[in-house]
């Protein structure tokens, strides 16, 4: 029987899963973001007067700036406009897949991923993001398939390697997961990542062991020490409920 634990602290550890998730980082709450929407949006007023290829590039530039500063709905609008000018724009389609996923529109996200993969089936970033999309939904086997394809296309793809490690750990394949983590992370980080996934799965004794190994290698890690201390506190014997959204931040 698995123990009930407070899952909020696990979410706080998500940054230890280095290099995982998707390819673009959002930057919310900055002064730049506050100024960006009117500035970049104004640049699209004359797009209709440009040739289609140039108009698409303008919209993509605007969309990327909006996405960077956290204006996801506005970025989606610009990516859609870019694709109207250039229906074969892989960049627009890929980013729409990621953004629709972030917005919670799973059906549209999946449609965009499939569309992008038809255009560029061996793009490692796209394959990684598709794998992570499946990971977020608990489709471990499918996630593993896409992530292995990403690594076949780009063996040094660190995000895909970490995401594959996470996926294997979620399937209980701890040694395989550790091997993937160790390929791109320090041994201490690899053990910490494994421990976090095991804690998410309710494998508390295994998680404690992984955290202890991590601390043996990196005794100064306050985060891992706090995680271990949390697990070592007496817990209720009630069966664990769904921990909710414990996904890592998308990079």
Write the layout of secondary structure elements.
Blueprint: H1 8-12, H2 31-42, H3 52-68, H4 72-85, H5 90-102, H6 106-119, H7 124-136, H8 140-153, H9 158-170, H10 174-184, H11 187-200, H12 204-217, H13 222-232
Helical content class: 55-70%
Radius of gyration based on Cα positions: 20 Å
- Write down how many β-strands occur, each being a DSSP E stretch of 2 or more residues: 0
Averaged pLDDT: 83
H/I helix tally = 13
Residue ranges: pLDDT <50 for 5 or more in a row?
1-9, 24-39, 236-251
Could you explain how this protein is built, in words?
- It contains 13 helices and no strands.
- The radius of gyration is 20 Å and the shape is elongated.
- It has helices spanning 8-12, 31-42, 52-68, 72-85, 90-102, 106-119, 124-136, 140-153, 158-170, 174-184, 187-200, 204-217, 222-232.
- The protein is mainly α.
- The chain has a domain at 31-120: Serine Threonine Protein Phosphatase 5, Tetratricopeptide repeat (Alpha Horseshoe).
- Residues 1-9, 24-39 and 236-251 have low confidence and may be disordered.
- 39% of the residues are buried.
Key words describing this protein structure:
single chain, about 250 residues, mainly alpha, Serine Threonine Protein Phosphatase 5, Tetratricopeptide repeat, 13 helices, about 65% helix, elongated, disordered C terminus
Q: Can I get a quick summary?
A:
The chain is mainly α and 251 residues long.
């Amino acid at each position: 029987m698995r123990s009930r634990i407070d899952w909020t602290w696990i979410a706080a550890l998500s940054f230890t899963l280095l290099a995982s998730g998707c390819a673009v980082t959002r930057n919310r709450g900055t002064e730049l973001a506050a100024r960006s929407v009117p500035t970049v949006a104004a640049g699209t007023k004359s797009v209709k007067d440009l040739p289609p290829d140039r108009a698409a590039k303008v919209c993509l530039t605007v969309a990327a700036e909006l996405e960077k500063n956290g204006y996801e709905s506005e970025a989606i609008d610009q990516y859609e406009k870019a694709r109207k000018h250039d229906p074969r724009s892989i960049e627009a389609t890929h980013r729409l897949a990621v953004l629709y996923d972030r917005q919670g529109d799973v059906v549209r996200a999946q449609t965009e991923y499939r569309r992008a993969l038809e255009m560029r089936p061996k793009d490692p970033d796209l394959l990684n993001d598709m794998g992570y999309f499946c990971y977020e939904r608990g489709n471990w086997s499918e996630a593993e398939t896409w992530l292995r394809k990403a690594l076949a296309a780009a063996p040094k793809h660190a995000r895909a390697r970490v995401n594959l490690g996470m996926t294997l750990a979620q399937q209980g394949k701890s040694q395989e997961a550790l091997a993937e983590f160790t390929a791109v992370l320090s041994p201490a980080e690899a053990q910490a990542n494994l421990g976090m996934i095991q804690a998410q799965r309710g494998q508390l004794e295994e998680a404690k062991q992984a955290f202890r190994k991590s601390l043996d290698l990196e005794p100064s890690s306050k985060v891992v020490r706090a995680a271990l201390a949390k697990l070592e506190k007496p817990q209720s014997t009630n069966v664990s409920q769904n921990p909710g959204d414990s996904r890592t931040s998308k990079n």
